[in-house]
């Protein structure tokens, strides 16, 4: 019986079924994957079993306890504070130290809403409407959890940092989806109201008054859900010698400027990216339109370099004792739970499906929407053999159940394919790279993949 329906012809469908059934391996794979998570079947056990946490060069101090961002997109904040504690724990004589992620989370949410409200007003004055790609992009998730390095500089340099015991995680920080939904709802409403006011020729004074009222609603919501950040703190702890220590009363900004900044200066660190797209040459400075969290703050800037430069700079930093914040596409070719492995050999797609998941190169993955930065972590060690890097030790922020009590192993080829940016102190950079920072940045569109936020 034939039909007039379109689509794939019946004889083609039958041919595909015949070819599938003719291969016994396909039937075996079907039997297994039908009742199990395909990713578990894809695992290459021989590759996973060869990974050991022994490295030729490691920072002298790794942070304790292992942090856990839980059900939130705060990895970029966790990775920054984890890098900070690695550097300052010796001077503070701490065996364990964790800074308050909830504290920076609060201020990022508030400042980002203020920045977005200003952006809505500016877009309206440019004649942009909700029907255009730009405003549509800005409204996708106005209260995004994720972020970029320069956003962290803005927050820490303005608000400082505090130990976690002085401002612990709220439930709405550890499980942020509901809070983000509430703020997203109001921000889209606010965008409509502000843009309408601009289009109807309201005065600047009227618009700013309305914006102030909106920001107060956001502040109230954040304070209810996350708590009100302390203006001063007193931190009491036992040092390595079990002696009582006390710092404070002191403001969070004073704590940062006196105890942290002399050792770990946020402003001295630059984001070096690997964007191999032909349209974005190396040795150029880039930024992304409407990518920030603070009006009038430090812009988000990238120095584009070949991937080998990112590796060399990372090794130089670690060899000098400083761990490296980095952004990557964590969801590709991994066996994190429970193995703690990021490796192109970790999953064998060819064995199960008969094809590779690496059909696109890094440039192609960026151009065709297959990959972008999704997660930020910390590199604390590397291993070299015959003068070449072979693997890297990674401090994650997903608790201590995976890998080596929360530490992962990243293979060198995985670094090449899925690492997009590293943050390096200026003292490790060459004069040629520093000269790039003096350029007028090339402005990429707001939706460019290099504007992706670390949020997993």
TrEMBL record:
Q: State the source organism's domain of life.
A: Eukaryota
Among the GO biological process terms of this entry, one is: homocysteine catabolic process
Q: Which residues cross the membrane?
A: none
> What family is this protein classified in?
Belongs to the peptidase C1 family.
Q: Which CDD domains match?
A: Peptidase_C1B
Q: Does the keyword Metal-binding apply?
A: no
Record organism: Magallana gigas (Pacific oyster)
Catalytic activity reads:
Inactivates bleomycin B2 (a cytotoxic glycometallopeptide) by hydrolysis of a carboxyamide bond of beta-aminoalanine, but also shows general aminopeptidase activity. The specificity varies somewhat with source, but amino acid arylamides of Met, Leu and Ala are preferred
| Protein name, as recorded | Bleomycin hydrolase
Write down the top EC class of this protein: hydrolase
The active site consists of: 75, 375, 396
Which SUPFAM superfamilies does its entry note?
A: Cysteine proteinases
Indicate yes or no for the key word Cytoplasm.
Answer: yes
Cellular localisation: Cytoplasm
Checking InterPro entries in the record gives:
Papain-like_cys_pep_sf (IPR038765), Pept_cys_AS (IPR000169), Peptidase_C1B (IPR004134)
A cellular-component GO term for this protein: cytoplasm
Could you tell me the keywords of this UniProt record?
A: Cytoplasm, Hydrolase, Protease, Thiol protease
The protein's Enzyme Commission number: 3.4.22.40
């Amino acid at each position: 019986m034939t039909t007039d329906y379109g689509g794939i012809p019946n004889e083609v469908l039958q041919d595909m079924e015949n070819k599938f059934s003719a291969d016994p391996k396909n039937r075996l794979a079907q039997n297994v994957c039908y009742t199990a998570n395909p990713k578990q079947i894809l695992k290459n056990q021989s590759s996973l079993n060869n990974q050991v946490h022994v490295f030729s060069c490691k920072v002298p101090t790794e942070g304790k306890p292992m942090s856990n961002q839980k059900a939130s997109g705060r990895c970029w904040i966790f990775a920054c504070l984890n890098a900070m504690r690695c550097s300052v724990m010796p001077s503070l004589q701490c065996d364990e130290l964790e800074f308050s992620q909830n504290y920076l989370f609060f201020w990022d949410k508030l400042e980002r809403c203020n920045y977005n409200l200003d952006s809505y007003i500016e877009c309206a004055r440019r004649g942009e409407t909700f029907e255009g790609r730009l405003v549509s992009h800005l409204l996708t998730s106005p209260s995004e959890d994720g972020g970029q390095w320069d956003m962290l500089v803005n927050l820490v340099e303005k608000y400082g940092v505090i130990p976690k015991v002085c401002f612990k995680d709220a439930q709405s920080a550890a499980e942020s989806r509901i809070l983000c939904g509430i703020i997203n709802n109001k921000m889209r409403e606010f965008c409509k109201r502000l843009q309408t006011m601009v289009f109807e020729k309201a005065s600047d004074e009227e618009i700013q008054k309305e914006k102030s009222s909106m920001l107060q609603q956001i502040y109230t919501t954040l304070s209810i859900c996350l708590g009100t950040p302390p203006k001063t703190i007193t931190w009491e702890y036992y040092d390595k010698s079990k002696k009582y220590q006390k710092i404070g009363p002191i403001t969070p900004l004073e704590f940062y400027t006196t105890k942290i900044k002399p050792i770990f200066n946020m402003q001295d660190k630059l984001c070096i990216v690997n964007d191999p797209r032909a349209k974005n040459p190396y040795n150029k400075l880039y930024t992304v339109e409407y990518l920030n969290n603070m009006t009038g703050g430090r812009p988000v800037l990238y120095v584009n370099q070949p991937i080998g430069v990112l590796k060399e700079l990372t090794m130089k930093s670690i060899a000098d004792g400083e761990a490296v914040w980095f952004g990557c596409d964590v969801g590709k070719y991994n066996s994190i739970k429970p193995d703690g492995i990021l490796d192109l050999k970790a999953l064998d797609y060819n064995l199960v499906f008969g094809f590779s998941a690496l059909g696109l190169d890094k440039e192609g993955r960026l151009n065709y929407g297959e990959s972008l930065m999704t997660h930020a972590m910390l590199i604390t060690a590397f291993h070299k053999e015959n003068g070449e890097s072979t693997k890297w030790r990674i401090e994650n922020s997903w608790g201590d159940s995976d890998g080596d009590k929360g530490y992962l192993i990243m293979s060198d080829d995985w670094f090449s394919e899925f690492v997009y940016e590293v943050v390096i102190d200026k003292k490790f950079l060459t004069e040629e790279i520093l000269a790039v920072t003096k350029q007028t940045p090339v402005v990429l569109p707001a939706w460019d993949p290099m504007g992706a936020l670390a949020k997993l």
